[in-house]
Amino acid sequence: MRKKDYSKYWTKVTGDTVGDILNKWAERKPKGEALIFKERKITWEQMGNLTDSLATAFINLGMKKGDRIGILGPNHPEMLICWFASAKVGIIPVPLSTRYRKMELEYVISNAGCSVVVTIDEYENFNFLETIIELKRKTPSLKTIIVHKTKEKKESDLLYLHELLNIPPDYGKIEKNRPLATDPLVILYTSGTTGIPKGVVHTHDSMFCDAKAYISEVHWLTDEDVLLQSMPWFHMVGHQNFNNTCLLLGQKNILMEYYTPEKFIDLIEKNKVTWLDGVPTMFLLPIYRIPDLKARDLSSLKFAIVCGYYCPPEQMKLIKETYNVDLIQIVGSTEGGCLLANRRDDPVEKIFSTVGRSTSSKEIRICNPDKGEEVQRGEVGELWYRGPSIFKYYWNNPDLTKKEKDEEGYWHSGDLGKVVDDEGNICFMGRIKDVIIRGGFNIYPSEVEAFAMNLYSVDNAVLIGYPDPILGEKTCLFICPKQGVVVKEEEIRRACRENLADYKNPDLIKIVNSLPLLPSGKVDRITVRKQLFKELGLN
């Protein structure tokens, strides 16, 4: 595949803001479709007008550059319009997950100091509006609630989003509040696998530097491509999709409100989607649950990205063959965006066996986390990143920023990996905090999990360590079988004995119907660990 010339999309690596790029597409392709949601179609011109109206409304409420606004809702156009409108005038959006409940919402809104929250009224049988109203009473910073209503019920003491979208724009006010590319663009809160969520601050520059690099070096998409946004907009991957890639290229984005295997396939077929990305489960469930999948017309689909967590070779091969696409895998994070990626034209064997290499927007070191020294090629070390696309700081937490970003500007990711070839492709080995030390031997859970998930009968797996007075730690492998498949413990044990070093063989194996997941789609290791410790009578 020939690499593209991107000079018609951008001419500089830094200096662009969200407002600059959105206004450009509103002028260049006013009738071009920007968003499609169910039967609604929103053009780039309409996106420009709606965001100008809403930006004016925010300013009229007394908001100014640097203020924070919480945005709570699913993949609805209104959520993205709120994000763009606030970003246009330097107000910092704080995306709020629809999986959050009262405690998490209270913490994030309070920690970010949101003065305004835009919220959907109800979603998935949960009343978010009632929750936000309750939180307003005990959150000093929160002054105003704006409702995106899906029900007819209306309360007089609230502001309603659809009314604010009809306010005449004041271009003088918008220009006066125009941000710089070096200003904060967004605060994204992590899913909090280590405890309390962290507010990750990105600027316009850090987001777009990342996007320009992976568009031009990794997947080579253009404005003619059509995205299915299957990941939640409030997730980092969602930001990388529409808020970065689609915006930079002026692409059409098909919004999927929530995932089901049937909806996933229907939207690809109906809208002639050409590319998408998602966690492995999103690609695999249709294969297992839609009997006539091979009869569906998915010929428009040319390119797909697997992300969120490691996808073993057998599953990568199955996805590639089923959907007949160029397929790559990306390792990313809230702090760094696209950290490692296969290239679209990499040989299949490298795509299946590694997670690729970094892009030009980042420098990478692989270091011994204890000594801070770079390791030799082939040795496992912690992945450190530096560059204009790395986050700037943790919101309201200078101590944590100083702890995780060193004096040279390298962010210590906590990821483990090793270089396996001359091109710098990396084999991902898991997380530092997940490493299990059994009798003095290091066990990387991702290695054992990848092996287990390559077995024909296994859908998902997670390896958890637990304390042992003699060996220091032992391991328990949780196995979630594929739908309709019966898995026996002895089958797993025999496969492990035949293929893994003896110290990597799990001490316990538990067959379970499901595993708890985080909003990112990753297995919630903390919950699994707590359940195991409770069963074993451990603290």
Question: What's the gist of this structure?
Answer:
By secondary structure, this protein is an alpha/beta fold.
The residue ranges in which pLDDT falls below 50 over 5 or more consecutive positions are none
Biggest β-sheet description:
8 strands, mixed
User: Roughly how many Å apart are the termini?
Assistant: 55 Å
Main CATH class of the largest domain:
Alpha Beta
- Assign the CATH architecture of the largest domain: 3-Layer(aba) Sandwich
In DSSP terms (H or I, runs of 4 or more residues), the helix count works out at 17
| CATH-defined superfamily of the largest domain | ANL, N-terminal domain
Number of domains: 3
Assembly of the depicted chains: single chain
Assign the CATH topology of the largest domain: Rossmann fold
Beta percentage is 15-25%
